[in-house]
Amino acid sequence: MAPLRELLGRLRQFPRNLGVSVAHAERRYARQASRELLELYRLEHREHPQLTGRSLYEAVVARRLGPNAGNAADIVRRAEESFTDWPVERELRFRHVVHYQIFDEYRLQAPARQGTRTNIGDVVARIIPEEI
Fold first, then answer.
1. pLDDT of 44-58, one tens digit each?
2. 102 close to 34: Cβ distance less than 8 angstroms
3. Helix H segments across 48-93?
4. Distances (CA, A) of 88 to 68, 91, 94
5. Helices and strands per DSSP (H, E), number in the chain
6. Which pLDDT tens digit goes with each residue over 20-31?
7. For the whole prediction, is pTM greater than 0.85?
């Protein structure tokens, strides 16, 4: 009877363990994507030093999107709508665009996802400097 009780105990903990695993996967994805977007930012900035702000962010997102580059302006616009008006009015930063882009990519990988279990913004903030 003890092995059955042990098995039942493990099965009860499975959903909690699965949640930890999902959050870990989200953080790992956000870290990798943040690093990639930062590298694209640096590359785009080197190749096109005249680009700044929104136009630079759109160019970076366009590179990331590849064949779907036409959606870059829409991604940046949605990031602006999501991060610059609330809770206080502020200037759009690359960090905002990265946060929005990562959330959007992650959500689109599995359309049934309603959101994330981790704060993607915290992960992004550790990698993307605030001043760019």
1. 999 999 999 999 999
2. yes
3. 53-65, 72-83
4. 32, 10, 17
5. 5, 0
6. 577 888 899 999
7. no
